[in-house]
Design a protein that fits this description.
Helix content is about 60%, strand content about 0%. It is mostly helical and about 160 residues long.
Amino acid sequence: MRNYELNNIDEEDFGDFIFKVQDSFDISFSREDFADIRTFGEFSDLIIQKLDGEEDSNCSSQQCFYKIKFAISQNTNIALNSINTNSRVELLFPRENRRGIVRQLEKDLDLNLRILEPKKAITGSIFGLGIYSIILFYYNWRVAILIFMFYCIHN
């Protein structure tokens, strides 16, 4: 590709073009991004760089992703470059050591991820079944024992 210089471009047209590129590719540019851009090829490289998802210190969600990615890599011995947004949870957190890995991640990141906790509706339903089985025990002990066994299995 020839490197056409961007010397004689109308600023308004270029601004409109930038907005269209940002909307089309769902990326954003800052003023600093254009500090060293002199040719169309350099501008194309900038777009490719943004599309590749290189770390940008201005994006908090991206910073969060990279921190979690690094912590997962440190705790699981998975190569850092093999962890991405499409990585399967089963591969990142193997079932046999899942709780330990998550606890260590929570400790390293100093936050409670709550990814292994059941939803409150499920917990409430199971608790309600336990109470219901105790009440039902007074009326029909066979049904109460079945419900209580279900409660114990799922709790």
